[in-house]
Amino acid sequence: MNSLAIDTSTNILSIALKWGENYLETTCMIGLKHCETLMPLIKNLLDRASISPKKLDLVICSAGPGSFTGLRIGMATSKGLALGIGCPLVSVSSLDMHVFSLNFFDGLVVPVIDARKKRLYTALYIKGRRITDYLDIEENELFKMVEKYEHILFTGPDACLFKSSVDGRKYFLDPGYNTGKGFYLIKLGIEKYNRVGPDRAEQGPLYVRKSDAEILHRKKENCE
User: Fold this and answer.
1) For the stretch 155-179, what's the b/e string if a residue is b when 16 or more beta carbons lie within 10 angstroms of its beta carbon?
2) Contact assessment for residue 107 and residue 149, using Cβ atoms and an 8 Å cutoff
3) Core-most of 151, 168, 175, 200, by most CB within 10 Å?
4) What is the pLDDT of residues 28-57, one digit of tens each?
């Protein structure tokens, strides 16, 4: 299955392509400049593989949580590609993507994405199985949740926020925490498509938290 995966959930932009048994991935640290960077990188990746967009069988994108702007751009681009090509679209949680290769860890795996305003997007996993909802919480709340576990591994693009807590006995840091995960996104996307089929047309990003504009609008409504 020829598949293109797009992750714009954080400042690590990752695009991956699988065709036959071949695989290519492009990853770059771009801040949040997804809008001007995404399409040229997709074209470059397809050109390197000599694959026409029309030969894609599946488009996969990260659903979030993560950057509001990045997720909107990634989802809109993915939907546009899938619609134009006439192929299905599948979205995958960015937190699930970051823990995909860590089933070997004997303990709790905690992916971390900086949610700004001193908050984090996260969830707790054991042997690849998510045991909590997707969360938007403060750092001290997270430590209260994980302190009962014997071993905790932090991963995800912002796991470095916990470097000062890493002691090699209870708290550990995934060495590949800030690398692109396009290959894992492809694996999860194909697996999800085979299991439940494509996303619904109206399906959007997994925000977890409302945007500042939505929060402000809700406050205004409550004051009226």
Assistant:
1) bbbbbeebeeebeeeebbbbeebbe
2) yes
3) 151
4) 887 656 778 899 999 999 999 999 999 999
